[in-house]
Amino acid sequence: MAFTGPTGKTTSSLAEINVTPLVDVVLVLLIIFMVTAPIIQTGIDVQLPETRSVSTVNPEQRIVISVGRDNSLFFRNEPINFNAIGTRLTKEVKDRREPIYLRADMDVRMKTVVAVMDEIRRAGFTQIQIVTKQMKIDAKP
Q: Per residue in 49-63, pLDDT tens?
């Protein structure tokens, strides 16, 4: 396509795409996702009980069921109904010998924790690990 300029000369249009704004937008989006991804993956806010021996658990690599302070249940990082625990476990986990990690807030009643453990066992999973955090030991001089 040709244009006629103010001097009367015919000039052709610029057919190149300016990619600089596109690169700027993509980089900004990349930075936003890099900053927000760890925040999203932190999971459920649970105050774990303290013990002396602790192993770390990554909810993305393990099957983790969390019980919040208000008795809310989460399968990995998704809310779940108590009655759906067994169904969800049998659908998601193929090997019944794989350990199921139970994270319960330290203020949750033992009755609730035992009920969740019983529901896991009813689904056929016997390897239940309770997740805790490292106890802080005060060093005496």
A: 777 776 666 555 678
DSSP 52: S
Q: Distance (Å, rounded) from C-alpha 119 to C-alpha 41?
A: 26
Q: What is the largest CA-CA distance in the chain?
A: 92
125 assigned to some structural domain: yes
71: containing domain? 50-134
Question: Cα 76 to chain center, whole Å?
Answer: 7
Determine the Cα–Cα distance for residues 27 and 44; give it in Å rounded to an integer: 30
Question: How many whole angstroms separate alpha carbon 36 and alpha carbon 24?
Answer: 19
Q: Which of 83, 88, 128, 84 is nearest to 104 (CA)?
A: 128
SS3 17: coil
What distance in Å separates the CA atoms of residue 95 and residue 126, rounded to the nearest whole number? 11
pLDDT in tens, 7-37: 777 766 666 778 888 899 999 999 988 887 7
Residue 12 shares a structural domain with residue 79 = no
The number of distinct structural domains making up the chain is 2
pTM, entire model: 0.60
